[in-house]
Amino acid sequence: MNMHSNENIETCYHCGEDCTDEIIKNEEGKSFCCNGCHMVYDLLKENNLSDYYRLNNQPGVKQKGKSQREKLAYLDDETIIKKLIDFSDGRIARLSFYLPQIHCSSCIWLLEKLPELSEGIAESKVNFLKREIYVTFLEEKLSLRDVVELLINLGYEPLINLEDLEKNKKNKAKKAQEKSFYIKLGIVGFCFGNIMMLSFPEYLGITVEDQHFIELFGYLNLVLSIPVFFYGARDYLTSAWHALRHGGVNIDVPISLGIFALFLRSAYEILSDTGAGYLDSLGALIFLLLIGKWFQQKTFDNISFERDYKSYFPIAITRIVKGINENIPLSKLEVHDTLQIKNGELIPADSILKKGEGRIDYSFVTGESVPIRKVSGDLLYAGGKQTGGVIEIETTKEVSQSYLTRLWNEQTFQEEAIKDLLQSKTNVLSKWFTIAILIIASIAGAYWWSVDGANHAVNTFTAVLIIACPCALALNAPFALGNAMRIMARFGLYTKDTIAVEKMAAVNHIVFDKTGTITSAKEQSISFEGEELSEEQLQLVYAVTSQSTHPVSSRIAQHLKQLDKKLKVENFEEVQGNGIQGEVNGHAVKLGKASFVNADKAGKKTFQTVSYVNIDGKVYGKFLLAQSLRNGVDTLLSDLHERGYKISLLSGDNSSEKEKLSKSFPEGTEMHFDQSPKDKMDFIKKSQGGGETVLMIGDGLNDAGALKQSDVGIAVAEDAHQFSPACDAILAAQKVNQLNRYLSFSKIAMVMVYLGFVVSLLYNVLGLSYAVQGNLSPLIAAILMPLSSISVVLLGTIGTTWFGKVFLKK
């Protein structure tokens, strides 16, 4: 490695910055601006990650002047670690950071290769839009400080604000950003107004005899245009520069070229004393672009589909206040609240276990389903699921909606990462659209230069670049489908992302579970058949069934609720698809299928759901829950059949119900009984293998595998406590009979998306036709550009809102 003085300016191979102070050359002859960039290059090369530089030219982040490692000593403090870590079980830990340096595809590529740079990192995922990274690391090999140091070494220093750990200050940051924008708008407006005033003589055709005043006015306009150009248009210029530097184009490229054309042409005319230039047009253009940006952002904020968990996230919890249980929504949950968590229920916020034995399944967080035993005083992390008996916890943090929804959307509960194909196509279309506009603008400008001179050519060139806007194409689908998500949530169907809405529109095969889905546990009458149970034995049964959220167990517990003696249940277990068991006061209690409790299944067949009871090894009989379809399900099934959907039924109960159910289901419906969770999943796999797009709707407890396998998995929640992370959507139980309406609405939402594409293309065709003819000024183009995006977005949101009221009305 040799060090050279800076005789000729060279750019850094890693970050692309000019090597102004020194040039560091490696053995391959590559130049670097500092030791930091050179070190990162060597690190990537040593780990066979040189493809980082193939994705984009000079994609790195400048290293010189980065924070020193000793400044990170505070990250060894246990108090700070607990506040920053999202999850830790002593073996693995998860955290998330905001990385403002993320700017291109190379950044994503490199950051998601962290496991190859350090064996202590198990996984790293990047959210490009939010500039966030989610890291899972092994605590025995790395510490929090080690992870942060690695990110800094790569040029991605996390933005860590300790005050933000105590209180969410996003609104404050947003207000600061808005204040900065308003200052910029005020400065540009001031300069633009004065440029207009100094241009009055030219507007009014007033002859100024003293040539010195004409020159003075021109120079003053040029001085006033400098902050307009370098400050007011900075965001557009820098965005375009980054895109071009990395071999791409974006919407800011044509806009920036138009701004450059106006400024350079004006500066030339004024300095050469050949004309007055177009600085009034430049000031008006940038001022109107900023006004349009402000108006557009305000419009988007007002119709934003970003879900607020206080209104839409479908989880409620049981809070204990002075010994009395009360159901509350997440919005009312506070730090130090005491909560009751039953088997299968989610822990909504970081908490301390106060009572009971915790068997926490963190598969929602880590993907590993082996329960971890916890005792009183242990810390429980948000996203864990209790798999044993009832526990009581005390919250130590506020609910993080972003964390819960991120867990719901993560790849852990998908067979593979699903790409939004519609959005991907939109992005490709936008890219080629921008390239085409650059070509059209150049041809139109050259034509008018030869026909009518520079003045007409500059105006036409600039107008074409500004009027043509692919923004509407890029914004249309997210806002239309996002608004559809919000509307469906208001009417009882909570989808986790826009992909679920898009796939619902493509469904052609619907698979129903029975118990808790098309039938309601709350509406079932209940009786007991067999040897009469004593009051003490019924108390034992209640104690065990009250631990479960399964529809059958919940109905039995509700039936016996008056016998509650607050008995302690130990070693509670729920065997998926079979039954529940536990120990109460030294008695072993089991309820469930005949095979699970060792009962003799012989006897007359029944059209009811059966749950056998075994206490201390003796089978006493069975609870019979009358089967009745939910209100409106008959009509739902008939309507779906008429619309051409293929319908199937999968049930874990016996086939004795087939005759009765056949009367409600359409002729030809495929019905399968005595289905295990694996049987259900295999059935869906087979259907998908035949080219069908399958929607599975089940209770989310015994159907997790099938819900995960299906193209769209909908979990039916009898109450808001039930939450299955394997599903794509959660449907309020009382809304099952409206499934046909949700499907129809999803199709309408997709129609609105395609309609928005058509409107956007028509706008661009008409605008370009006027612009290339030289009939459109840059000022009018600057006004129309944001209005086009707003109109297309409003079309999608207003359209989906109106159709939502039509299709999803109560």
Automatic annotation (TrEMBL):
Example of a GO cellular component annotation carried by this entry: plasma membrane
Domain P-type ATPase A: from-to ranges: 318-408
Spans traversing the lipid bilayer: 181-200, 212-231, 243-264, 276-295, 428-449, 461-481, 751-773, 779-804
Membrane topology value: Multi-pass membrane protein
Domain (Putative metal-binding) ranges: 11-87
One function term, GO molecular function aspect: ATP hydrolysis activity
Keywords tagged on the record: Cell membrane, Ion transport, Magnesium, Membrane, Metal-binding, Phosphoprotein, Translocase, Transmembrane, Transmembrane helix, Transport
Subcellular location, record wording: Cell membrane
UniProt GO BP: copper ion homeostasis
Pfam families according to UniProt: ATPase-cat_bd (PF12156), E1-E2_ATPase (PF00122), Hydrolase (PF00702)
NCBIfam families for this protein: ATPase_P-type (TIGR01494)
Family: Belongs to the cation transport ATPase (P-type) (TC 3.A.3) family. Type IB subfamily.
Protein name per Swiss-Prot or TrEMBL: HAD-IC family P-type ATPase
Biological classification of the source: Bacteria, Pseudomonadati, Bacteroidota, Cytophagia, Cytophagales
